Amino acid sequence: MPKAINFKRVVMRLTESATRVAEKERQEGINTIAETIRTILRRQSWGKPGTVKMKILAESYAQIREAVTCIDATHCLREHAFAKGTRWLEFHIPQASDNMDTLDALIREVKESLRKTGLIERGFVYVVWSLRPREFFYIGKAQTVDRLGHGKFAYGSAYATRLSLIFPAKNQDAARAQVEASLLAVIKRMTNGQPEQNKRKEPVPAGCASRDLDKLAHFMTAQQEALSGRGTKQTTLLDAAVAILRKASRPMSVQEIVGKIRAKRLWRSEGKTPTATLSSSILREIQDKGDDARFIKVGPGRFALK
Fold first, then answer.
1. Pair 221, 236 in one domain
2. For 185-231, how does the pLDDT look when each residue is reduced to its tens digit (9 = 90+)?
3. 199 and 108 share a domain?
4. Which of 19, 150, 256, 264 is 20 to 30 Å from 123 by CA-CA measure?
5. Which domain holds residue 221?
6. pTM score, whole prediction
């Protein structure tokens, strides 16, 4: 008789462990990104690809993305594999010298059991594995029991001792595909890459964790664009000087203006002589625009607004 307890318990424990590990790694990645961006903002320079800060951001984001995939997988399993109405069946795979005879006998046993339980017309997710030592050989989904005769299942059954079937509460191919992908993601994460026979990477359905990751990506992009956009035009420095002088309502020296601009982060310069840059820019505007210039010179290195 098939048993419906061992494998479900194994998957529930793996899911709980995977959730704890992934949540911790996600938070660590977020903390690293936050600290790195704070440093970048203090320096007012995003940096070029390949720099240490950019590598830290890329590696941390990749860590978060991997953790998020695992978190979404655990949420999917709770929704579809542990939901009310889901059925779990488990069969023992005897080890014999003639694997084909053993496989045929196993398929006949599964068919008979599904007829008795009323599940013969239902599709399912199946896992070929061993309890001691715990090893996972293959995870797949099938519409009928006859699908179990394919090559990878036959290979796995030659070494495995258990065949477990999961019948999601929703008898839909989409639900089975989601359970297959999520179960595979959790097991691979918690068993160092098993099962090796699953070469094709199944997409885990995106959940709340993925949507939060999208928000983080948008935030990082916005910070990069904001920093990259500052100081790209020469007139930006002059506009910043206008803003400072307008608020001061008095003449100021170039050094004072630059100091205020830097304090308020209105303009960023990679140059070593921002005061000379501002002074020459103001004088050029006065010379080029004449009466239309926004500035007037009131003394050596001192300017005011008209």
1. no
2. 999 889 887 787 887 777 898 888 888 888 888 778 777 766 665 44
3. yes
4. 19
5. 1-229
6. 0.68
Verify that 9 and 92 share a domain, yes or no. Answer: yes
The pLDDT of residue 97 is 45
Mean pLDDT of the chain: 85
Cα 184 to Cα 156: distance, rounded to the nearest angstrom: 15
Asked if 17 and 95 sit in the same domain, the reply is: yes
Same domain? For 185 and 274 the reply is: no
Whether 286 and 174 share a structural domain: no
* Number of independent structural domains in the chain: 2
φ, ψ of residue 6 to 5 degrees: the values are -60, -55
Query: Which tens digits make up the pLDDT trace of 289-303?
Result: 888 889 999 988 899
Dihedral Cα 264, 267, 272, 275, nearest 10 deg: -80
Q: What is the pLDDT of residues 133-152, one digit of tens each?
A: 889 999 999 988 887 877 78
Q: Who contacts 275 (Cβ-Cβ below 8 Å, separation ≥6)?
A: 254, 255, 258
